[in-house]
Write a structure and sequence with these properties.
The chain is of the alpha/beta class. About 35% of the residues lie in helices and about 25% in strands.
């Protein structure tokens, strides 16, 4: 395989269940960088919400964030490509949230905004304990998210809905899909992540590859959740984690070990570095 770009989801994929980067994964990524392979974080997070040990990883120059809404040269601080909800779309989707029992937040201009009434009660919306600290640390608290969006009057990268009831989640998903102008995905069972059409991880990988002069077949994507499905379908090689949802595994070219078993390193060693043992 002539892989020149490896796109990596973080939570549930590159990072273990405690949000750590294992020594083995680190070593393999360092070897990829030495060989001139682009190692690209590919996440639903904003760049500022990515752990410092990833942001400061030697050799990482490009990042795909907010599910593909932004493709950035993080070394030069230049946006290569962006696909965002208009301010009007964002306000409409936040207004829709009022119809459901949901917590919501919004990403605008590389920042995440949430309301204190929600951030104080994350456990009420079935958000995994391992994510609660990250969410609180990366959200800027505002009195009213909708009012903040109006004040900024800027396009939005992504909107999140969080639920405590899966039937309510299904109802909201149906209403959002009926709009026809957004793509809806999830990074865990109880949330919905809303992006504009074209803002997917898979599409973003192909746009970055084109920018770098690479062929689609020279790309590899790793993932575990619903917002990684397009990576499995559009990257040259899609690798699902052992802990991935069944839909992700079925769409992938390969299934590796879990995120707690150095699955990223295992697959890269076998498929890209051609190590045995």
């Amino acid at each position: 395989m002539d892989i020149k770009l490896i796109a990596l989801d973080l939570d549930g994929t590159l990072l273990d269940s405690q949000k750590r980067l294992s020594d083995r994964n680190r070593s393999v990524l360092e070897e990829c960088v030495r060989r001139g392979i682009h190692v690209v974080p590919c996440t639903g997070r904003i760049w500022g919400g990515i752990p410092d040990f990833i942001r400061e990883f030697p050799g990482i120059r490009y990042a795909i964030t907010t599910n593909g809404a932004v493709v950035e040269d993080v070394k030069e601080h230049q946006i290569i490509d962006e696909r965002k909800l208009t301010c009007t779309q964002a306000l409409e989707i936040l207004e829709m949230a009022q119809q459901f029992h949901t917590m919501y937040d919004v990403y605008v201009n590389g920042e995440a905004f949430g309301e204190e009434r929600f951030l104080k009660n994350l456990e009420s919306f079935l958000i995994p304990a391992t994510l609660q600290g990250m969410i609180r640390a990366t959200r800027k608290v505002v009195p009213d998210v909708m009012e903040k969006v109006r004040q900024l009057n800027l396009p939005a990268e992504k909107i999140n809905y969080f639920f405590d009831d899966l039937e309510e989640r299904a109802r909201a998903k149906k209403a959002l899909e009926a709009r026809g102008d957004v793509v809806i995905s999830s990074s865990f069972t109880d949330n919905l992540e809303i992006n504009v059409l074209g803002a997917t991880k898979g599409d973003a990988i192909l746009r970055l590859a084109k920018h770098l002069g690479l062929k689609p077949e020279q790309t590899m994507g790793f993932g575990d959740g619903g917002n990684d499905l397009t990576m499995m379908k559009k990257a040259g090689v899609g690798v699902a984690m052992g802990n991935a949802e069944e839909e992700i595994k079925e769409a992938s070219n390969y299934v590796t070990a879990s995120n707690d078993e150095d699955g990223v390193a295992w697959a890269i060693e076998k498929l890209v570095l051609r190590r045995e043992g």
